Amino acid sequence: MAGGLQKVANIPELRRRLLFTVAMLAVYRMGVQIPTPGINGEALAAFFAKNAGTLFDMFNMFSGGALQNFSIFALGIMPYISASIIFQLLTVVVPQLEALSKEGEQGRRKITQYTRYATVGLAMIQGLMIAVGLEGMGAPAGGEMIVINPGWPFRLMTMLTLTSGTAFIMWLGEQMTERGVGNGISLIIFAGIVARMPAAIANTFRMVSAGEMTAIFLPILLAMMVGVIWVIIFFETAQRRIPIQYAKRVVGRRQYGGQRTHLPLKINMAGVIPPIFASSIMMFPATIGGMIKVDFIQQLSAMLQWGTPLHTALYVAMIIFFCFFYTAVTFNPVDVAENLKKNGGFIPGIRPGKMTSDFIDRIMVRLTVIGAIYVSVICVLPTVLIKKLNVPFYFGGTALLIVVGVAIDTLAQMESYTVMRSYEGFLRSGRIKGRRSR
Description:
Blueprint: H1 2-9, H2 12-32, H3 41-50, H4 55-62, H5 66-69, H6 78-93, H7 95-101, H8 105-135, H9 152-179, H10 184-195, H11 197-209, H12 217-237, E1 239-246, E2 248-251, E3 254-257, E4 260-266, H13 273-291, H14 295-303, H15 309-330, H16 333-342, E5 345-346, H17 354-388, H18 397-420
Antiparallel strand pairs: 1-4, 1-5, 2-3
Protein backbone atom coordinates (compact mmCIF):
# COMPACT_ATOMS: atom_id res chain seq x y z
CA MET A 1 0.00 0.00 0.00
CA ALA A 2 2.87 2.39 0.82
CA GLY A 3 4.39 1.64 -2.57
CA GLY A 4 1.05 2.44 -4.17
CA LEU A 5 0.92 5.83 -2.45
CA GLN A 6 4.43 6.56 -3.71
CA LYS A 7 3.28 5.78 -7.26
CA VAL A 8 0.39 8.21 -6.83
CA ALA A 9 2.82 10.95 -5.79
CA ASN A 10 4.90 10.30 -8.91
CA ILE A 11 1.97 10.87 -11.31
CA PRO A 12 1.34 14.64 -11.63
CA GLU A 13 -2.14 14.34 -13.15
CA LEU A 14 -3.39 11.89 -10.52
CA ARG A 15 -1.81 13.96 -7.73
CA ARG A 16 -3.53 17.10 -9.04
CA ARG A 17 -6.87 15.33 -9.27
CA LEU A 18 -6.58 13.97 -5.74
CA LEU A 19 -5.74 17.40 -4.32
CA PHE A 20 -8.68 18.97 -6.15
CA THR A 21 -11.02 16.28 -4.80
CA VAL A 22 -9.79 16.81 -1.23
CA ALA A 23 -10.24 20.60 -1.60
CA MET A 24 -13.83 20.21 -2.82
CA LEU A 25 -14.64 17.82 0.02
CA ALA A 26 -13.20 20.38 2.46
CA VAL A 27 -15.52 23.03 1.00
CA TYR A 28 -18.46 20.66 1.46
CA ARG A 29 -17.54 19.95 5.09
CA MET A 30 -17.26 23.69 5.82
CA GLY A 31 -20.73 24.24 4.37
CA VAL A 32 -22.13 21.57 6.71
CA GLN A 33 -21.24 23.83 9.66
CA ILE A 34 -23.13 26.92 8.35
CA PRO A 35 -26.60 26.92 9.99
CA THR A 36 -29.83 27.93 8.31
CA PRO A 37 -31.22 31.22 9.75
CA GLY A 38 -34.23 31.17 12.05
CA ILE A 39 -33.42 27.94 13.95
CA ASN A 40 -33.01 27.53 17.71
CA GLY A 41 -29.84 25.43 17.86
CA GLU A 42 -30.26 24.31 21.49
CA ALA A 43 -33.83 23.09 20.92
CA LEU A 44 -32.76 21.26 17.76
CA ALA A 45 -29.87 19.57 19.59
CA ALA A 46 -32.22 18.49 22.39
CA PHE A 47 -34.64 17.06 19.84
CA PHE A 48 -31.92 14.95 18.18
CA ALA A 49 -30.64 13.81 21.58
CA LYS A 50 -34.10 12.49 22.40
CA ASN A 51 -34.45 10.73 19.04
CA ALA A 52 -30.99 9.10 19.09
CA GLY A 53 -30.91 5.62 17.57
CA THR A 54 -33.94 6.22 15.34
CA LEU A 55 -34.51 7.02 11.69
CA PHE A 56 -33.27 10.57 12.31
CA ASP A 57 -29.80 9.17 13.03
CA MET A 58 -29.77 7.43 9.67
CA PHE A 59 -30.70 10.61 7.76
CA ASN A 60 -28.24 12.62 9.82
CA MET A 61 -25.46 10.20 8.92
CA PHE A 62 -26.29 10.46 5.19
CA SER A 63 -26.04 14.25 5.42
CA GLY A 64 -22.79 14.15 7.38
CA GLY A 65 -24.32 15.90 10.39
CA ALA A 66 -25.88 18.68 8.28
CA LEU A 67 -29.40 17.70 9.37
CA GLN A 68 -28.53 17.83 13.07
CA ASN A 69 -27.01 21.29 12.58
CA PHE A 70 -29.79 22.14 10.10
CA SER A 71 -27.15 23.72 7.93
CA ILE A 72 -27.51 25.05 4.38
CA PHE A 73 -26.65 21.51 3.19
CA ALA A 74 -29.34 19.81 5.32
CA LEU A 75 -31.03 18.23 2.27
CA GLY A 76 -27.70 16.85 1.10
CA ILE A 77 -27.43 15.34 -2.35
CA MET A 78 -30.48 13.07 -2.01
CA PRO A 79 -32.75 15.23 -4.28
CA TYR A 80 -30.18 14.87 -7.08
CA ILE A 81 -29.96 11.12 -6.54
CA SER A 82 -33.76 10.80 -6.59
CA ALA A 83 -33.99 12.85 -9.80
CA SER A 84 -31.23 10.79 -11.43
CA ILE A 85 -32.97 7.52 -10.56
CA ILE A 86 -36.29 8.82 -11.86
CA PHE A 87 -34.84 9.88 -15.21
CA GLN A 88 -32.86 6.65 -15.51
CA LEU A 89 -36.09 4.71 -15.21
CA LEU A 90 -38.00 7.12 -17.47
CA THR A 91 -35.33 6.66 -20.14
CA VAL A 92 -36.50 3.06 -20.51
CA VAL A 93 -40.22 3.92 -20.42
CA VAL A 94 -40.49 7.21 -22.36
CA PRO A 95 -39.55 6.86 -26.07
CA GLN A 96 -38.39 10.49 -26.37
CA LEU A 97 -35.91 10.12 -23.50
CA GLU A 98 -34.77 6.77 -24.85
CA ALA A 99 -34.05 8.41 -28.21
CA LEU A 100 -32.11 11.18 -26.46
CA SER A 101 -29.97 8.65 -24.59
CA LYS A 102 -29.00 7.07 -27.92
CA GLU A 103 -27.90 10.36 -29.49
CA GLY A 104 -24.50 10.20 -27.82
CA GLU A 105 -22.91 12.94 -25.78
CA GLN A 106 -25.37 15.65 -26.85
CA GLY A 107 -28.38 13.58 -25.81
CA ARG A 108 -26.84 12.70 -22.46
CA ARG A 109 -26.19 16.38 -21.80
CA LYS A 110 -29.86 17.18 -22.34
CA ILE A 111 -30.92 14.41 -19.95
CA THR A 112 -28.40 15.74 -17.41
CA GLN A 113 -29.90 19.22 -17.78
CA TYR A 114 -33.41 17.84 -17.21
CA THR A 115 -32.09 16.03 -14.13
CA ARG A 116 -30.75 19.31 -12.74
CA TYR A 117 -34.12 21.01 -13.19
CA ALA A 118 -35.87 18.09 -11.47
CA THR A 119 -33.35 18.28 -8.63
CA VAL A 120 -34.18 21.93 -7.98
CA GLY A 121 -37.90 21.15 -8.06
CA LEU A 122 -37.58 18.25 -5.62
CA ALA A 123 -35.35 20.31 -3.32
CA MET A 124 -37.90 23.14 -3.21
CA ILE A 125 -40.71 20.73 -2.30
CA GLN A 126 -38.66 18.96 0.36
CA GLY A 127 -37.36 22.25 1.77
CA LEU A 128 -40.90 23.59 2.16
CA MET A 129 -42.10 20.36 3.80
CA ILE A 130 -39.18 20.39 6.26
CA ALA A 131 -39.85 24.03 7.14
CA VAL A 132 -43.54 23.31 7.82
CA GLY A 133 -42.64 20.24 9.88
CA LEU A 134 -40.09 22.10 12.00
CA GLU A 135 -42.64 24.77 12.93
CA GLY A 136 -44.60 22.18 14.90
CA MET A 137 -41.60 20.65 16.66
CA GLY A 138 -40.02 21.67 19.94
CA ALA A 139 -37.49 20.47 22.44
CA PRO A 140 -38.57 17.51 24.62
CA ALA A 141 -40.39 17.97 27.92
CA GLY A 142 -42.11 21.18 26.87
CA GLY A 143 -38.96 23.06 25.92
CA GLU A 144 -38.54 25.88 23.44
CA MET A 145 -39.71 25.60 19.84
CA ILE A 146 -37.12 24.78 17.17
CA VAL A 147 -38.27 27.60 14.86
CA ILE A 148 -37.79 31.05 16.36
CA ASN A 149 -40.33 32.96 14.20
CA PRO A 150 -42.73 30.59 12.39
CA GLY A 151 -44.56 31.77 9.30
CA TRP A 152 -44.25 32.11 5.55
CA PRO A 153 -41.11 34.28 5.69
CA PHE A 154 -39.31 31.46 7.50
CA ARG A 155 -40.73 28.82 5.13
CA LEU A 156 -39.71 30.69 1.98
CA MET A 157 -36.27 31.54 3.35
CA THR A 158 -35.69 27.91 4.39
CA MET A 159 -36.89 26.58 1.05
CA LEU A 160 -34.59 28.96 -0.85
CA THR A 161 -31.60 28.26 1.44
CA LEU A 162 -31.87 24.46 1.32
CA THR A 163 -32.49 24.44 -2.45
CA SER A 164 -29.44 26.64 -3.02
CA GLY A 165 -27.37 24.33 -0.81
CA THR A 166 -28.43 21.26 -2.78
CA ALA A 167 -27.69 22.98 -6.09
CA PHE A 168 -24.22 23.93 -4.83
CA ILE A 169 -23.51 20.36 -3.71
CA MET A 170 -24.66 19.13 -7.12
CA TRP A 171 -22.17 21.52 -8.77
CA LEU A 172 -19.41 20.35 -6.43
CA GLY A 173 -20.10 16.74 -7.36
CA GLU A 174 -19.98 17.47 -11.08
CA GLN A 175 -16.70 19.36 -10.70
CA MET A 176 -15.18 16.46 -8.76
CA THR A 177 -16.31 14.03 -11.44
CA GLU A 178 -14.83 16.16 -14.24
CA ARG A 179 -11.64 17.45 -12.62
CA GLY A 180 -11.15 15.04 -9.72
CA VAL A 181 -10.80 11.28 -9.46
CA GLY A 182 -14.42 10.72 -10.56
CA ASN A 183 -17.63 9.64 -8.81
CA GLY A 184 -18.10 13.11 -7.31
CA ILE A 185 -21.64 12.58 -6.03
CA SER A 186 -20.71 9.26 -4.45
CA LEU A 187 -17.64 10.79 -2.80
CA ILE A 188 -19.79 13.52 -1.23
CA ILE A 189 -22.07 10.90 0.32
CA PHE A 190 -19.00 8.91 1.35
CA ALA A 191 -17.47 11.95 3.09
CA GLY A 192 -20.72 12.71 4.91
CA ILE A 193 -21.06 9.18 6.25
CA VAL A 194 -17.40 8.80 7.24
CA ALA A 195 -17.42 12.18 9.01
CA ARG A 196 -19.93 10.84 11.54
CA MET A 197 -17.85 7.79 12.46
CA PRO A 198 -15.49 9.50 14.99
CA ALA A 199 -18.49 10.78 16.97
CA ALA A 200 -20.04 7.30 16.94
CA ILE A 201 -16.79 5.74 18.18
CA ALA A 202 -16.44 8.36 20.93
CA ASN A 203 -20.04 7.77 22.01
CA THR A 204 -19.38 4.04 22.21
CA PHE A 205 -16.38 4.50 24.54
CA ARG A 206 -18.42 6.95 26.61
CA MET A 207 -21.10 4.30 27.11
CA VAL A 208 -18.45 1.76 28.13
CA SER A 209 -16.93 4.16 30.68
CA ALA A 210 -20.41 4.96 32.03
CA GLY A 211 -21.23 1.26 32.45
CA GLU A 212 -24.04 1.33 29.86
CA MET A 213 -22.15 -1.22 27.74
CA THR A 214 -19.82 -3.99 28.85
CA ALA A 215 -16.18 -3.77 27.73
CA ILE A 216 -16.17 -7.42 26.63
CA PHE A 217 -18.79 -6.58 24.02
CA LEU A 218 -16.43 -4.19 22.17
CA PRO A 219 -14.10 -6.81 20.57
CA ILE A 220 -17.12 -8.89 19.58
CA LEU A 221 -18.70 -5.84 17.96
CA LEU A 222 -15.44 -4.95 16.20
CA ALA A 223 -15.03 -8.49 14.85
CA MET A 224 -18.61 -8.46 13.61
CA MET A 225 -18.10 -5.11 11.85
CA VAL A 226 -14.97 -6.38 10.10
CA GLY A 227 -16.85 -9.51 9.04
CA VAL A 228 -19.76 -7.50 7.62
CA ILE A 229 -17.39 -5.26 5.64
CA TRP A 230 -15.62 -8.33 4.26
CA VAL A 231 -18.96 -9.82 3.17
CA ILE A 232 -19.92 -6.58 1.39
CA ILE A 233 -16.57 -6.42 -0.42
CA PHE A 234 -16.95 -10.03 -1.49
CA PHE A 235 -20.47 -9.62 -2.88
CA GLU A 236 -19.81 -6.23 -4.50
CA THR A 237 -16.81 -7.56 -6.43
CA ALA A 238 -18.10 -11.10 -7.09
CA GLN A 239 -18.95 -11.97 -10.70
CA ARG A 240 -20.47 -14.87 -12.58
CA ARG A 241 -18.38 -15.10 -15.74
CA ILE A 242 -20.11 -16.66 -18.72
CA PRO A 243 -17.56 -17.93 -21.30
CA ILE A 244 -17.85 -16.33 -24.75
CA GLN A 245 -16.28 -17.72 -27.93
CA TYR A 246 -15.92 -15.60 -31.07
CA ALA A 247 -15.95 -17.32 -34.45
CA LYS A 248 -12.98 -16.97 -36.79
CA ARG A 249 -13.40 -14.68 -39.78
CA VAL A 250 -11.10 -14.42 -42.76
CA VAL A 251 -10.87 -10.99 -44.42
CA GLY A 252 -8.48 -11.05 -47.36
CA ARG A 253 -5.34 -12.71 -46.16
CA ARG A 254 -5.93 -11.95 -42.50
CA GLN A 255 -7.84 -13.96 -39.92
CA TYR A 256 -9.86 -12.18 -37.25
CA GLY A 257 -11.67 -13.45 -34.16
CA GLY A 258 -11.40 -16.86 -32.65
CA GLN A 259 -10.51 -15.53 -29.19
CA ARG A 260 -12.16 -16.58 -25.96
CA THR A 261 -13.47 -14.08 -23.44
CA HIS A 262 -16.22 -13.90 -20.85
CA LEU A 263 -19.39 -11.96 -19.99
CA PRO A 264 -19.17 -10.78 -16.34
CA LEU A 265 -22.49 -10.67 -14.47
CA LYS A 266 -22.59 -9.10 -11.01
CA ILE A 267 -24.43 -10.69 -8.11
CA ASN A 268 -25.75 -7.30 -7.01
CA MET A 269 -26.51 -5.70 -10.35
CA ALA A 270 -28.88 -3.09 -8.85
CA GLY A 271 -26.33 -1.70 -6.36
CA VAL A 272 -27.77 0.61 -3.67
CA ILE A 273 -30.80 1.66 -5.73
CA PRO A 274 -33.29 -0.85 -4.15
CA PRO A 275 -32.69 0.20 -0.51
CA ILE A 276 -32.83 3.89 -1.50
CA PHE A 277 -36.16 3.39 -3.27
CA ALA A 278 -37.53 1.26 -0.44
CA SER A 279 -36.45 3.79 2.20
CA SER A 280 -38.09 6.64 0.28
CA ILE A 281 -41.40 4.77 0.08
CA MET A 282 -41.32 3.74 3.73
CA MET A 283 -40.89 7.39 4.74
CA PHE A 284 -44.32 8.31 3.36
CA PRO A 285 -46.40 6.91 6.30
CA ALA A 286 -44.34 8.87 8.85
CA THR A 287 -44.63 12.03 6.74
CA ILE A 288 -48.39 11.66 6.31
CA GLY A 289 -48.81 10.81 10.00
CA GLY A 290 -47.08 14.04 10.94
CA MET A 291 -49.35 16.12 8.70
CA ILE A 292 -52.80 14.48 9.10
CA LYS A 293 -54.06 14.14 12.68
CA VAL A 294 -56.55 11.30 12.15
CA ASP A 295 -56.66 8.34 14.55
CA PHE A 296 -56.53 5.66 11.84
CA ILE A 297 -53.63 7.31 10.04
CA GLN A 298 -51.81 7.86 13.34
CA GLN A 299 -52.19 4.17 14.24
CA LEU A 300 -51.00 3.08 10.78
CA SER A 301 -48.05 5.44 11.02
CA ALA A 302 -47.14 4.02 14.45
CA MET A 303 -47.27 0.46 13.06
CA LEU A 304 -44.90 1.45 10.25
CA GLN A 305 -42.36 3.22 12.43
CA TRP A 306 -38.73 2.27 11.89
CA GLY A 307 -37.83 -0.93 13.75
CA THR A 308 -41.33 -2.43 14.00
CA PRO A 309 -41.85 -5.97 12.60
CA LEU A 310 -44.31 -4.71 9.95
CA HIS A 311 -41.89 -2.02 8.79
CA THR A 312 -39.02 -4.51 8.55
CA ALA A 313 -41.13 -7.04 6.60
CA LEU A 314 -42.37 -4.44 4.10
CA TYR A 315 -38.88 -2.95 3.80
CA VAL A 316 -37.37 -6.34 2.89
CA ALA A 317 -40.21 -7.07 0.43
CA MET A 318 -39.66 -3.74 -1.33
CA ILE A 319 -35.89 -4.28 -1.51
CA ILE A 320 -36.39 -7.66 -3.17
CA PHE A 321 -38.95 -6.21 -5.59
CA PHE A 322 -36.73 -3.29 -6.61
CA CYS A 323 -33.71 -5.58 -7.00
CA PHE A 324 -35.59 -7.54 -9.67
CA PHE A 325 -37.26 -4.47 -11.16
CA TYR A 326 -34.11 -2.36 -11.51
CA THR A 327 -32.09 -5.29 -12.86
CA ALA A 328 -34.78 -5.96 -15.47
CA VAL A 329 -34.80 -2.29 -16.47
CA THR A 330 -31.05 -1.84 -16.79
CA PHE A 331 -30.01 -5.26 -18.15
CA ASN A 332 -31.71 -6.78 -21.19
CA PRO A 333 -30.59 -10.36 -22.03
CA VAL A 334 -32.19 -10.10 -25.48
CA ASP A 335 -29.99 -7.12 -26.42
CA VAL A 336 -26.89 -8.90 -25.08
CA ALA A 337 -27.70 -12.01 -27.12
CA GLU A 338 -28.31 -9.94 -30.27
CA ASN A 339 -25.02 -8.07 -29.86
CA LEU A 340 -23.14 -11.33 -29.41
CA LYS A 341 -24.75 -12.75 -32.53
CA LYS A 342 -23.95 -9.66 -34.63
CA ASN A 343 -20.30 -9.78 -33.58
CA GLY A 344 -19.93 -13.49 -34.18
CA GLY A 345 -19.86 -14.43 -30.52
CA PHE A 346 -21.63 -17.34 -28.85
CA ILE A 347 -21.73 -19.24 -25.57
CA PRO A 348 -20.21 -22.72 -26.01
CA GLY A 349 -22.97 -25.31 -26.02
CA ILE A 350 -25.76 -22.72 -26.42
CA ARG A 351 -27.28 -21.75 -29.75
CA PRO A 352 -27.21 -18.04 -30.64
CA GLY A 353 -30.41 -16.01 -30.46
CA LYS A 354 -33.31 -16.88 -28.18
CA MET A 355 -31.60 -19.81 -26.46
CA THR A 356 -28.69 -17.55 -25.53
CA SER A 357 -30.98 -14.84 -24.14
CA ASP A 358 -32.96 -17.45 -22.15
CA PHE A 359 -29.73 -18.89 -20.76
CA ILE A 360 -28.46 -15.46 -19.66
CA ASP A 361 -31.89 -14.61 -18.22
CA ARG A 362 -31.94 -17.78 -16.08
CA ILE A 363 -28.50 -16.97 -14.69
CA MET A 364 -29.51 -13.37 -13.96
CA VAL A 365 -32.61 -14.49 -12.06
CA ARG A 366 -30.54 -16.77 -9.84
CA LEU A 367 -27.92 -14.09 -9.26
CA THR A 368 -30.60 -11.51 -8.45
CA VAL A 369 -32.16 -13.84 -5.85
CA ILE A 370 -28.80 -14.13 -4.11
CA GLY A 371 -28.14 -10.39 -4.45
CA ALA A 372 -31.58 -9.45 -3.09
CA ILE A 373 -31.10 -11.66 -0.02
CA TYR A 374 -27.65 -10.19 0.57
CA VAL A 375 -28.86 -6.56 0.29
CA SER A 376 -31.87 -7.29 2.54
CA VAL A 377 -29.68 -8.79 5.28
CA ILE A 378 -27.26 -5.85 5.19
CA CYS A 379 -30.10 -3.30 5.27
CA VAL A 380 -31.91 -4.99 8.17
CA LEU A 381 -28.66 -5.23 10.16
CA PRO A 382 -28.96 -1.72 11.74
CA THR A 383 -32.40 -2.60 13.11
CA VAL A 384 -31.02 -5.68 14.85
CA LEU A 385 -27.94 -3.89 16.18
CA ILE A 386 -29.80 -0.86 17.55
CA LYS A 387 -33.03 -2.46 18.75
CA LYS A 388 -31.76 -5.83 19.98
CA LEU A 389 -28.08 -5.32 20.86
CA ASN A 390 -28.31 -1.64 21.92
CA VAL A 391 -25.49 -0.51 19.64
CA PRO A 392 -25.22 3.29 20.06
CA PHE A 393 -24.67 4.12 16.38
CA TYR A 394 -26.08 3.35 12.95
CA PHE A 395 -23.98 0.61 11.29
CA GLY A 396 -24.86 -1.25 8.11
CA GLY A 397 -27.62 -0.67 5.61
CA THR A 398 -27.38 1.62 2.62
CA ALA A 399 -24.73 3.78 4.31
CA LEU A 400 -22.26 0.92 4.64
CA LEU A 401 -22.98 -0.29 1.10
CA ILE A 402 -22.19 3.20 -0.21
CA VAL A 403 -19.00 3.57 1.85
CA VAL A 404 -17.54 0.22 0.78
CA GLY A 405 -18.69 0.57 -2.82
CA VAL A 406 -17.28 4.09 -3.23
CA ALA A 407 -13.97 3.00 -1.69
CA ILE A 408 -13.75 0.14 -4.20
CA ASP A 409 -14.60 2.43 -7.13
CA THR A 410 -12.09 5.11 -6.06
CA LEU A 411 -9.30 2.57 -5.71
CA ALA A 412 -10.22 1.20 -9.13
CA GLN A 413 -9.97 4.72 -10.62
CA MET A 414 -6.56 5.23 -9.07
CA GLU A 415 -5.51 1.79 -10.30
CA SER A 416 -6.47 2.71 -13.86
CA TYR A 417 -4.34 5.89 -13.72
CA THR A 418 -1.29 3.99 -12.47
CA VAL A 419 -1.72 1.26 -15.09
CA MET A 420 -2.00 3.85 -17.87
CA ARG A 421 1.35 5.26 -16.76
CA SER A 422 2.98 1.81 -17.11
CA TYR A 423 3.07 1.14 -13.40
CA GLU A 424 2.28 -2.27 -11.90
CA GLY A 425 -0.84 -0.93 -10.26
CA PHE A 426 -1.95 0.72 -7.04
CA LEU A 427 -1.87 -2.55 -5.07
CA ARG A 428 0.67 -5.30 -5.54
CA SER A 429 -1.77 -8.07 -4.65
CA GLY A 430 -3.63 -7.77 -7.94
CA ARG A 431 -6.04 -5.67 -9.94
CA ILE A 432 -9.07 -4.15 -8.25
CA LYS A 433 -12.38 -5.30 -9.65
CA GLY A 434 -14.74 -2.33 -9.71
CA ARG A 435 -18.47 -2.64 -9.13
CA ARG A 436 -19.34 -1.39 -12.60
CA SER A 437 -17.88 -4.33 -14.52
CA ARG A 438 -20.33 -5.76 -17.00
